[in-house]
Fold:
Amino acid sequence: MNIYFDKLYRYDRLSEPAGIAIPFREGELKDMGKIAIMQNDRPCMIKPKVTSRHADGSVRYMYIDFLE
Structure:
């Protein structure tokens, strides 16, 4: 999955906080260690939080804070 942000200002905004919510299908994600956000082929520091789980224990919704 790719994440794109529109350029809203004339100058680049570096290391600006961002957050996204991501839905998952039942059984799709059980291991939080498999989540990464990459920028220019380097992983960003993330702070994931599971906000809901499916009946089988897999992630239904996750909110991720990171620096853009």
Summary: The chain has a mean pLDDT of 86. Residues 21 and 43 are 18 Å apart (CA to CA). Strands lie at 17-23, 38-39, 42-43, 46-53, 59-67. The radius of gyration is 14 Å.
